[in-house]
Write a structure and sequence with these properties.
- The chain is mostly helical.
- Helix content is about 55%, strand content about 0%.
- It folds into two domains: about 25-175, Vanadium-containing Chloroperoxidase, domain 2 (Orthogonal Bundle), CATH 1.10.606; about 195-445, Vanadium-containing Chloroperoxidase, domain 2, CATH 1.10.606.20.
- It has 15 helices and two strands.
């Protein structure tokens, strides 16, 4: 009886395989990027968040740069499959129109396979020398799984051609990235030697780190030159220790706010803190929100690639632009000023980062997020029912918003509640970020994707 059952089961498997072979029709023509799911690309960004958190040297500027190049690689690997789309080559600063490889004419490609190869290779190159063996294996395993899943219905030459194109995109972008001023900056995040300016208005160390992070980051090449030249904030309030001065008032606002914080304001300060090596940095938080939004609309590969590229360009330039003002004015942090002139026992809610105050990096980077999200997920009014659950992985709750401007304003205010930024830092940082976001959305010829 058992033998009969085995024979029947074997026959059933043969019939199933025979039937599947009869239905199998290998795809030999390039399909549009929009037919592919963007799930695997979102998974890569989740993995990159984890790797950023665990890899030494990836402070906020370095993290934003890595996220950016991965997004550009994804976009360039699939742009030939988006109707009417233009490459970023010839549109962004320093990348000539013929700098990137093009697919072979009249040959079939699987853009999903191409993107998989491009993203995996770019991630390896961005984290490179500091990438742990464990995280390298995670990238490799994700790449292999995605390839096997996507290549089954394509002839081997199509799959191999797609992989080769994706890796060629990654290599060309890596060569381009080596000249932007941030290459392997994770090996020397403090860019020593650097001599600290001296003066009562100047930044001084606020914790165990004696040197500020990336004092020469402002010299990095932006993707859009106008994101630096046309977005700089006005000079901060003139430094003064006079209790009647505007600067003293800025410090007193911080002091009074922290002294009288509500429980929710303390929660907000901690939720948005996004400390490096405890989380995947402020840029990582905003990319996590992008991933959540793309998931909520079940975005295609085309929409995911466009979204990550837009946010990547904007985040990268936000940190360069913000670092211009930080090291131009080298402004003392509120905690240092308050200790010297108001109350030596003052304590902040969260840790003060090791770099100057003006303007706020958090505010700048979330400003670009506001603009990119508004353009991609609303009719332009910014209204969206967002429940930001990206902090759950770090033990935080969910924050709810009905408009992306409310989201960005809360993030900016969180630095005020935390006691680490003057109000002017957040106001001007947010304005800078919004300008950069608008530039990236409007000055690049992006395809329309659903």
């Amino acid at each position: 009886m058992r033998r009969v059952q085995s024979i029947v089961a074997a026959l059933a498997v043969i019939v199933m395989l025979f039937s599947s072979c009869e239905r199998y029709e290998p795809v030999t023509e390039s399909q549009e990027t929009a037919v592919y799911s963007g799930d695997f690309l979102r998974q890569y960004y989740n993995l990159q968040c984890q790797i950023t958190k665990e890899t030494s040297g990836f402070f906020p500027p370095q993290a934003a740069r890595a996220f950016a190049y991965v997004g550009i690689a994804a976009y360039e690997a699939v742009v030939p499959g988006i109707d009417g789309a233009k490459s970023l080559a010839g549109q962004i600063n320093g990348l000539s129109a013929n700098a990137l490889p093009k697919p072979e004419a009249d040959q079939a490609y699987n853009w999903s396979i191409a993107a998989n190869a491009a993203v995996a290779e770019t991630m390896r190159k961005m984290f490179d020398l500091n990438l742990s063996e464990e995280n390298l294996q995670k990238i490799n395993q994700m790449e292999e799984f995605n390839y096997n899943q996507r290549s089954a219905e394509f002839p081997l030459p199509v799959a191999e051609r797609s992989v080769a194109f994706g890796k060629a995109i990654a290599e060309a972008l890596y060569q381009f990235s080596m000249g932007d001023g941030g290459h392997q900056s994770y090996l020397d995040a403090f860019q020593l030697p650097y001599e600290l300016p001296e003066g009562p208005n100047c930044w001084i160390p606020t914790g165990p780190v004696a040197h500020p992070i990336s004092p020469y980051w402002a010299q990095c090449r932006p993707f859009l030159a106008v994101n630096i030249s046309e977005t700089q904030p006005p000079a901060p309030k003139a430094f003064s220790t006079d209790p009647q001065s505007e600067f003293y008032d800025q410090a007193m606002q911080v002091y009074n706010q922290v002294t009288n914080n509500s429980a929710e304001e303390i929660e907000i300060a901690k939720f948005w803190a996004d400390d490096p090596f405890k989380t995947c940095t402020p840029a990582g938080h905003t990319f996590n929100i992008m991933t959540q939004l793309l998931e909520e609309v079940d975005a295609s590969l085309a929409k995911c690639a466009v979204g990550y590229a837009k946010l990547g360009l904007a985040e990268n330039d936000a940190f360069i632009s913000c670092w211009v003002s930080k090291y131009e004015y080298d402004l003392i942090r509120p905690v240092s000023y308050i200790h010297q002139y108001i109350d030596p026992s003052f304590q902040t809610v969260i840790g003060t980062p090791p770099f100057p105050a003006y303007s706020s990096g958090h505010s700048c980077e979330i400003g670009v997020g506001e603009k990119v999200f508004t353009e991609m997920f609303t009719n332009g009014d910014g209204n969206y029912d967002l429940s930001d659950r990206t902090g759950l992985q770090y033990g935080f709750g969910i924050r709810h918003f009905t408009n992306f401007s409310d989201m960005s304003l809360e993030c900016a205010n969180s630095r005020f509640y935390g006691g680490i930024h003057y109000p002017m830092d957040n106001i001007e940082g947010l304005e800078t970020g919004r300008k950069i976001g608008d530039n990236v959305v409007n000055l690049i010829q992006w395809p329309t994707v659903d």
